[in-house]
Amino acid sequence: MTELRVVDVTEEHLDSVWQVRIRSFGPGGDRDEWKKTALTFVADRRFLGVVDGDVLVAAARIWPFEQWWSGRRVPMGGVAGVVVAPEYRGRGVGSLLMRGVLQRCADKGYPLTGLYPATTVLYRHLGYEFAGSRYKFSFQAADLRTLGGSGTAVRKAGPADADRFLELASTAHETKRSSGPLIWPRSEIVSWLEDEDNFAYVADDGFVVYNWSDGDLVVDELIAGSEETARALWATVGSGASIAKTVHAYCAPFDPIHLLAEHEADGDARIVRWMLRLVDAPAALAARGFPEGAVLEAELRIDDPELPANTGDWHLSIADGSARLTPSEPSTDALRVGPRGLAALYAGTRLAALRGAGLVTGGDALDPALDTVFGGPTPYMLDYF
Ligand SMILES: CC(C)(COP(=O)(O)OP(=O)(O)OC[C@H]1O[C@@H](n2cnc3c(N)ncnc32)[C@H](O)[C@@H]1OP(=O)(O)O)[C@@H](O)C(=O)NCCC(=O)NCCS
Fold first, then answer.
1. What is the pLDDT of residue 270?
2. What positions does the domain N-acetyltransferase occupy (predicted)?
3. I need a labelling partner for 350 at 20 to 30 A (CA). Which of 11, 80, 238, 342 fits?
4. Which fold has domain 147-261?
């Protein structure tokens, strides 16, 4: 084994990456489709690998997302496809790769990075922590069919509606002060709407995208600006009740559908957790929204061994729905936090839980105010990546 190095994945590496992927995730998937998408990551230097001499032995890619945090968009590097060749595992290659990924996120100016962990250990060592979940609920199709809304005009949508969908989702997430949902690159949204296996419908203030899966229907996203539109869009999906008995839906645990449907969602909701990390603490806090009227002046001590620019004594000032993190002097009253605690705090985890897990120490007097400013609707995501 020669010296292992982090490199940009090039087109020439892609066959090797595919081989490591099969060994990591199992066979399947369309190789040509994968390669087409992979090249967009290569072109934008969002695909990193580890080489042993000339041999590629690990890879990971970074999606250029934005993520809603309390109703504001924050750029977020979504890390996916982290793979290490089996014969290189267990000797720090994954960690070396992920350090490269963190640095690239910083270089690209993403204040946040997020991922769905297959194992938490690797990512926690590097400062990621759980921040939210992806929920999949199952409803009776017959319940949705009778929700009404027939007075609302609903039309079939296509790729030309991509901008309209983005606009409607933005309005909804700003109004609801959502935390967690992703904003995908526009090209991805166009390609979903081009896919004839996805069915999309749009109303004046909402839309739905759904598809078939194993004889059931699956709602990928439903945005509704009013009760009538919610009823009309869910009923459009439920109109498939003569064939599909169940409608699975990716939505928030507090989505109005839970209050509209006659029978509660199946007790076996599927929950997949995702993790978050602050790459640039001042930028991440400045970009996030905060409740109007909430105020906070607090001293923070951040220790971030992986991204030392975050390390230091800081003053956190929150007012008028925005935050500012500025360098400060050491204080005995400071809240002391590492990157994992900072990520969980950012995501609105209650201070009692953070202290109970040892992720925060000191600054006890700040707890009620911190819970108020960082609190809000539970972070959720609709999509896996
Ligand atoms: C997960 C994977 C990327 C880890 O790569 P790796 O090179 O073995 O990771 P490292 O050697 O840098 O390990 C870093 C830490 O994670 C831990 N770790 C690695 N794999 C683990 C696993 N499967 N379960 C629990 N801990 C694990 C290591 O023990 C180490 O912790 P330690 O320092 O406390 O001992 C690799 O096993 C892999 O490619 N797996 C298949 C695909 C996959 O699951 N990818 C992750 C997608 S999110």
1. 96
2. 4-161
3. 80
4. Aminopeptidase (3.40.630)
Rounded Cα–Cα distance for residues 305 and 47 (Å) = 24
Is 294 in contact with 80 (CB distance < 8 Å)? Answer: no
Report the separation in Å between the CA atom of 83 and the middle of ligand 1, taken as the mean of its atom positions. 9
In 3-state terms, what secondary structure has residue 157? coil
d(CA 191, CA 36): 13
Q: Name the residue at shortest CA distance from atom 22 of ligand 1.
A: 119
pLDDT at 1 over 80: no
Report the distance separating Cα 258 and Cα 265, nearest Å. Answer: 7
Q: Cα(84) to centroid of ligand 1, in Å? A: 8
More confident residue, 242 or 268: 242
Domain extents for the chain?
4-110, 147-261, 281-374
Ligand 1 neighbours (beta carbon < 6 A): 24, 82-84, 89-95, 117-119, 121-122, 125
In ligand 1, which atom is closest to the CA atom of 79? 48
The residues near 378 (Cβ < 8 Å, ≥ 6 apart) are: 132, 179, 180, 252, 253, 254, 348
Number of Cβ within 10 Å of residue 53's Cβ equals 10
Atom 9 of ligand 1: nearest residue by CA position: 94
CA end-to-end span of the chain: 32
Fold of 281-374: Nonspecific Lipid-transfer Protein; Chain A (3.30.1050)
Q: What is the pLDDT of residues 282-307, one digit of tens each?
A: 999 999 999 999 999 999 999 999 99
| The predicted structure's pLDDT at residue 267 | 83
What percent of the chain lies above the pLDDT cut of 90? 98
Alpha carbons 297 and 323: distance in angstroms, whole number: 10
Task: Enter the CATH code of domain 4-110.
Answer: 3.40.630.30
Backbone angles phi, psi at 90, to 5 degrees: 75, 15
Give me the mean pLDDT over the 102-119 stretch. Answer: 98
Helix (H, G, I), strand (E, B) or coil at 42: helix
- Dmax over CA atoms of the chain, in Å, equals 69
